[in-house]
Amino acid sequence: xxxxKVYTTTVLFIVALFIFSSCEEKINHNGRTPLVGVGKxxxxxxxxxxxxxxTHPTADSAKIIxxxxxxxxxxxxxxxxxxxxxxxxxxxxxxxxxxxxxxxxNIYQDKLIEQQLNREISEAEIASxxxxxxxxxxxxxxxxxxxxxxxxxxxSKMPSVRAWMKSAAPEDVEKLExxxxxxxxxxxxxxxxxxxxxxxxxxxxxxxxxxxxxxxxDNFVEFSDSSAVYMLNVPTxxxxxxxxxxxxxxxxxxSLLLNSLKANFVKEVKRDLYxxxxxxxxxxxxxKGISVALKDSLSATE
Length: 302
Prior knowledge:
The model is unreliable at 1-12 and 14-23 (pLDDT under 50). The protein is of the alpha+beta class. Helix 5 (123-132) packs across helix 10 and helix 6 (158-167) packs across helix 7 (170-183). Among the domains are: 4-85, no CATH class; 139-238. 60% of the residues lie in helices and 16% in strands. The strands form two sheets. The protein has a four-stranded antiparallel beta sheet with strand order 4-3-6-5, with helices on both faces. Strands 1-2 form a two-stranded antiparallel sheet.
């Protein structure tokens, strides 16, 4: 509900509205309470209450309502001004009609796909596409797998942490994970995933080029600044231009194959509608040349 001070700030708008309304044709507001109006456009109390409840449940409602009403009036007044000053309304209507058609078409296609294209892309399909199209999956930047830890310079067990990081054996990774729970500033285990070198460098006090140079010499690197020590073990490093591994490319391939399936499905639906419409006479052809061409294309698809 509106606070009493809110109604005070809007009372002049409401009074003016009802004085104006008494001189104009009666408008059915369907049980809603208008606060302000411009022509046949109205801002209703119920809409403002809903806005407050969903976006600012505990805020200063009077100020928010005042700003909201001002914004609404500005938009509506500008729209009315635009309607008076854009002469080519037929062009606007054509654009709106085209947009409406495209919107309805997309919604219908999405529903068709959801209802009738119920199948998953198999791992075998992904692997087959990968093998046949490897040139599509070359890295545009270096990628890495490994472990990263950032700890305070004053952290305990520094030699042990360094040894665990260099080893990266399962038992040492377990020790790292336990240590990191209470001692690490940042800990990231990505030996079974992938990180870009630029992403890793963003966590270090060095550039991606410096990091790459160091990793070419040794899979374990260590850096420090005035407050922290950064350790990184990268047993797997892929350079720019190398082939992405299948596990890295898998989601991209799945998306490509799914989009291809959707496109082919929509194409088949259109072809079926086209053939049935020509056979039933639903489509009226007024040009002999086009009529022959369409019938020929119909025969070719049967």
